[in-house]
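Incident log entry.

Two folding requests arrived from the same account within the same minute. Monitoring flagged them as a possible duplicate submission, but the sequences differ. Recording both here for audit purposes.

Request one:
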Amino acid sequence: MTDVWTGKKWKWLGVACGGAALLAGAGAAHAQGIALPTVNLGFKSTDNPNEVVNTVKIILMLTVLTLAPAILIMMTSFTRLIVVLSFLRQALGTQQMPPNQVLVGLALFLTFFVMGPAFQEINTNAVRPYLAGTMAQEKALENALSPLRKFMFAQTRDADLALFVKLSKIEKPKNLSEVPTMALVPAFVISELKTAFQIGFIIYLPFLVIDMVIAAVLMAMGMMMLPPVVISLPFKIMLFVLVDGWTLLIGSMVQSFG
């Protein structure tokens, strides 16, 4: 027992010596004048307008960074992809299969694939020159927005674009370059939703036929208490797998952005 207690004493003594060494090292670093990073958060009064302007700029930048993912998602192919994938799950009747995380992840990777050329152009003409200090911030933003506008114009219907130009109460643009981005983005989203709903309607048709056939067969057999979904679900899954549905659907959606 004495040996065990002695071992514990030496163990705690070693820990204490190690802590003392760390404190001594920190004191030595402070004595040598090593600067440690500090962060100060607070409000103070100032008579310098530049400090107020800089604070407002930081707040606006943080707000934009918070909303940036949602803004970028609405300006890419993500909207059409996630809506169509959600329609597919509803048509199959598989409830939460595939899970939301899988659908969102697949839609994101397909978005990166579809928007690859645009992102590459943004990186070449905007991000790299700006980080190298050879391009002003305003010019970099303009160059970064140009590929996204080109993509959105290619996917936006003229009627939707004309609607938001009219609602914005501006002069009729002479060309596409004069169309403001604030009018282009909602027009693009509306066009994407319309296209996604059209694709969803086409997806629903074969599965709807299966549901109607199964319901008619069950009613003819007098099995009215048995839900048709229980019987039709395996047939819908089998049909989707046999026709290689994922390849057909994903290939058609990606080609629709061409």
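Request two (distinct sequence, not a duplicate):
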Amino acid sequence: MKIVRLAAATLLGGFALTTLSAQALEYSLPSAGSRLIGENQEYVVPNDGRALEAIAAEVQLGLTNVMEANPGVDPYLPKPGSTLVIPHQLILPDAPHEGIVINVAEMRLYYYPKGQKVVEVLPIGIGQLGKDTPENWVTKIQSKRPNPTWTPTAKVHAEYAARGEYLPAVVPAGKDNPMGLFAMYIGNLYAIHGTNANFGIGLRVSHGCVRLRNDDIEYLFKKVPVGTRVQFVNQPVKSTVEPDGKRYLEVHEPLSRTEDEFNSTASAPLPMTPALTRFIAHKDTDSRIVKQVLEQRTGMPVLTNPGNQASDI
């Protein structure tokens, strides 16, 4: 259970994770009218020389998830003894609670097992700039294949050749295959699959497919049946008005449109949908808090009407 391995873990939120499955974070679905799940936690960085990617994998997050919640952290060598916020509290995407929902903006996959009142959440890697993963698309799992082969396109062959690397016409199955050991196909061009790299979950690294850590794709592969609905959404801003009147806003950095994901200092514009405009304009919303949330983009839900509850952002 990954949650009990958090060093000096301190609960920060009020909505608990119910259980952790072997690989996925599993949350009980909230009551009717609610979209807020989970709790944030704290993690004390051990003095073992691990990069942030290894810590992210331990707490079942992507690298970007941890970096958003901890601005300024060194992704290569986080400071031993420092405390990281682990963003395990989430607002569910605005999409049906059915099958798989992939929010490319936050690089998370949500799986709603049929007949169960839970949602399982897994971090993902998505397509590089110019090789984008779909952002608004409803499809289904068309087939599944263990030990997949990979047939690179002519464009991919050219990219590798430009680096002095040459690929075979078909990359055989095995540990060196970029698709990993399991693949679920969702169309002629896309798949949800594993990886042959330890780095890249929570980043734009693939040729357009959805990439998971190997343990995670194996877990999902065994659970998700062929025919399962799959919906892609691009929701960097999520909001919820809870049944008790509390109003939460969760903001992620929108998908980068530049090549330099780590070092770009320019913030991309946020989509101001009619629903978000109404949320911000509501008389109970604290405009000072909203301004900070929109600027800081920590990827964590923040209470925007703290008059309902003692709160400090």
